[in-house]
Amino acid sequence: MNIINARLRGKEGLFRVELDGERIAAIAPLSSPSNPAVGDLDAGGNLVTAPFIEPHIHLDATLTAGEPNWNMTGTLFEGIERWAERKATVTHEDTKTRAKKTIDMLVDHGIQHVRTHVDVTDPSLAALKAMVEVRDETRHLINLQIVAFPQEGIESFAGGRALMEEAIAIGADVVGGIPHFENTREQGVSSVKFLMDLAERKDLLVDVHCDETDDPQSRFLEVLAEEARIRGMGARVTASHTTAMGSYDNAYCSKLFRLLKQSEINFISCPTESIHLQGRFDSYPKRRGLTRVAEIDRAGMNICFAQDSIVDPWYPLGNGNIMRILEAGLHICHMLGYEDLQRGLDLITDNSARTLNLGEGYGIEVGRPANLLILSAPNDYEMIRTQGHALASIRNGKLLMQRTPSRVERC
Ligand SMILES: [Zn+2]
């Protein structure tokens, strides 16, 4: 299969991308728009990119909003209560069915790489076992990384450490944590040391729910970054949320940024979820409840956007479309300046790939996997402005999905 009349990010002109089986075989410039041969896909002058990435989602909780009760206040705390009611009725098949339905929604929007956090503060580890099966059964659609996520803590949950070890033994790919939720500062610090030891010992990636609160005293990011720096593991470590950074004062932040840069860790922000759940203890002025996305980016550090939730007790909306998150995030983070719009897709493609350590398994380059998208616009700016879509998603050289753009007829 070949794709003709493709525009590539960062390059001038049109290209023909040749696929040979499961690899990209050649990328050749075209002197003028060419006519498709039989079996060719015509990008029509639009962008061809590597697949979109969903780097932070909770597939074990998706599609449960309103079951049995809706979150009436929309707060994080009522969400936890509503989830406790739903969690009591979760079964193996129920988890798998909802996760697969959600994966289909992601695939429909051009996503082929997903990192999901799975709650392991459950002595049966039922959701984790279900998700390990889902990972195998959906390999033709996505690459799925599973994070062992201790929703109720490692140190403050009975048997928390043993459950983390067991989750890794069962097949989780990434070590998670939630230090700001532990009962004390000391437990938060020791949970980070424990999870970093575990990841180092098992040679695994790390992704911690870190300081997901408006409390400016929640300062576990410095602990995570320092542990990553000392161990030389930064590129393999991710701090998710870090929303407290939006409430840190500038003096502390300037010192913190020196450490963050040295540590080389990655960041994930979930802009729609955070603006919805944070700022809830404020009257006015009301904080946005996000981490310092633009500042992290400007400082040369790696940050990407994620959806976090789709129709669950914490967030009632969502449809799998990561472009929606990108658009909201750029607004919320004051990133609609010219330069940001020229490279906006970085936040849902290349930056996310670096976070997930996809390496040479990602990107439009000869020899890499034939995983790519045809988008509905010729550049990042137009893709964002027009609320564009992935029109085709190709995986291992085969079409996964094609979308017909909606048509308007003037009368
Ligand atoms: Zn999360």
Automatic annotation (TrEMBL):
Which Pfam families does UniProt cross-reference here?
Amidohydro_3 (PF07969)
Q: Which UniProt keywords apply?
A: Hydrolase, Metal-binding
Report the SUPFAM superfamilies cross-referenced here.
Composite domain of metallo-dependent hydrolases, Metallo-dependent hydrolases
The GO terms this record gives for MF are: cytosine deaminase activity; isoguanine deaminase activity; metal ion binding
**What processes does the entry annotate via GO biological process terms?**
cytosine catabolic process
Q: Which CDD domains match?
A: Bact_CD (cd01293)
Q: Which residues form the Amidohydrolase domain?
A: 42-381
Instruction: State the NCBIfam families in the record.
Output: PRK07572.1, PRK09230.1
- Can you name this protein? Cytosine deaminase
